[in-house]
Model the fold of this input.
Amino acid sequence: MSVRNLKAGSKVVFSKDKMGVSPTSRAKEVVPLTKGDAYSYLVEKYWTVKEVHADGTATLITPRGKEHTVAFDDPRLRHAYIWERWLYRNRFPKLP
Done:
């Protein structure tokens, strides 16, 4: 992700790795684990950039107010597509 395009208030999508016995309907790339009792999958999280740091990281805020610090070059982080910003507009948190 390009540093010059990322700023406070930007809408981003973070693909979070999850494991469990019952993947949700939003799960992508579902793969059963070797013993077959659980699954590994990805869930796309719709977050907003709160702060951009000079060290190549950004603080992201979740809809429930939690904060995560992520590096710009993390392959799981990307800008939200324009259709995602419109279709999922209620999932992206608003900055105070």
Remarks:
- Strands lie at 11-20, 27-32, 39-52, 57-61, 67-71, 77-79.
- The mean pLDDT is 89.
- Residues 82-87 form the longest helix (6 residues).
